[in-house]
Amino acid sequence: MCTPSTDTTTLVIGAGPGGLTAAYTLSQAGYPVTVFEQDPQFVGGISRTVVYQGYRFDIGGHRFFSKSQEVEQFWTEILGSEMLVCQRLSRIYYNQKFFDYPLRPLDAFAKLGFSYTLLCILSYLKARFQPRPSVTSFEDWVINQFGERLYYTFFKTYTEKVWGIPCQAISADWAAQRIKGLSMGSLIRNTLFPQRTHQKNIIKTLIDQFRYPRLGPGQMWEQVHAHLQANHHPVLLGHQVNRIFWDPSGILGLQTLNTKGETCFWSGSHIISTMPLRSLIRALDPAPPSDVIVAAESLKYRDFLTVAIILDQPNLFPDHWIYIHDPNVQVGRIQNFKNWSPDLVPNLNYTCLGLEYFCFIHNQLWQMSDTELLKLASDELLKLGLRGDPQRPAQVIDGTVVRVPKAYPVYDHHYKSHVDIIRTYLQKTLPNLQLVGRNGMHRYNNQDHAMMTGMLAAENIILGEFTYDLWQVNQDAVYLEQGEAGSQALAGRLVPRPLRPLESERKSD
Questions:
Q1: What's the pTM value of the predicted model, to 2 decimals?
Q2: CA distance linking residue 165 with residue 256, whole number of Å
Q3: pLDDT digit of tens for each residue in the chain (509 aa)?
Q4: Is residue 325 within 8 Å of 154, Cβ to Cβ?
Q5: DSSP secondary-structure letter at 170?
Q6: For FRET with 21, which of 67, 279, 315, 499 sits at 20 to 30 Å CA-CA?
């Protein structure tokens, strides 16, 4: 049997970074909060850490680096000395060679050869003097920044593996958000004059140092979960929100379905949702207008699976991760978890790798059995030459598969108009609902962005009015002041940064 909350409680849908940050912020201010997470075992969303036979691994690699002082302080407050500092090493595998990533022009051109380098330079100059006039697609954006040759060499294959659609069909918004500020000019400047990680204006793609929890990203969210539970703010695992009841005054309550098949109604004065927008609209009771339903059903998501394999050699390659720009294999990226933290691997004579495959749930790849996927991963590692000495390759001694549906919201050409329809309707109709996080807002950003939207949603509740427009949080997890946001976000209140004094500032008062 469930114990429903009272209507003074904030109800948070989803125990990922956005939802848990909102709940923690509210709890620190003394506000009651209840969190619902459909996963019966894990918190953290895709920022969780999976444990298999004592081996800990990410669902993708999660760097902890943010331009937001509030987010950085949050991480320090939760884990303190458990946060390691990593010197980043990542590379691109292309044409049987390893290229530094972020790209370093001297390294790339030396490995591409003089003739190809000359063609790349000419292609870049053409893009600078004759840019594509209408930039609507990922392809348009990258070619204008790097030239056509480098686009085909270092961007096209990997991007199409990740999204499963041609680069011409991917919105330029995705490139602008994920590789903001990156261009050939910035790469050359960074090669000649490396930026320090602490610089406020550093391009995130170029950072050479980041923090990482000793036991993986899940350690952060497991600690937040433990704090909430200890302070009587329930985090209910295995509780799927399947109906959201509302009337013209706003959301009246939620119905959850738990792993025992029991349903329960929960009422609350405020709702914070991180569930995918498509699922949110499907759950509304009564159903919204048809145009909102059509917009929600038109949103697309990319699914994801990690094949974690354990090999019997201690050091296969030094990278934290490698991007695989090779169309002859299906793997998109490979993580080497021991290089993130030695404590992720219980036996240092072994190596645990995570091979990441991007797909849709109706694809053959998703339908393969775990045994078939383990064999595929093993064979592709061998084909790429990443199992050590070819004469004596490392042997795969064990492994497991983790499937993640709706891992990434897709930025096709029409996603923004669909989101705008849904967003406008929800803001007018459900005044006690706030959307936060990657899937909650259908915005493909990093966990610090999700956290900042969670913090601001909590601040709105604490202040007693929706002072902060969550859509004005940019990709750097910084709240944009009025005049900075431009036409892509609604005007919001002018606010100082940070939201409240940092711990160091409080001590000096």
A1: 0.88
A2: 35
A3: 566 655 668 999 999 999 999 999 999 999 999 999 999 999 999 999 999 999 999 998 899 999 899 999 999 999 999 999 999 999 999 999 999 988 787 888 899 999 998 998 999 999 999 999 989 999 999 999 889 998 999 889 999 999 999 999 988 887 766 665 455 555 444 444 455 544 455 545 447 789 999 999 999 999 999 999 999 999 999 999 999 999 999 999 999 999 999 999 999 999 999 999 999 999 999 999 999 999 999 999 999 999 999 999 999 999 999 999 999 999 999 999 999 999 999 999 999 999 999 999 999 999 999 999 999 999 999 999 999 888 899 999 999 999 999 999 998 889 999 999 999 999 999 999 999 999 999 998 889 999 999 999 999 999 998 899 999 998 778 887 654 544 343 333 333 334 444 333 333 33
A4: yes
A5: B
A6: 279
Is residue 342 reached through a cis peptide bond, with omega within 30 degrees of 0 on the bond before it? Answer: no
- Quick one: tokens of 219? 């350690």
Element (H, E) at 240: strand 239-247
287 contacts: CB under 8 Å, gap ≥ 6: 293
The DSSP letter of residue 321 is E
308, two tokens? 């974690």
CB atoms within 10 A of CB 248: 7
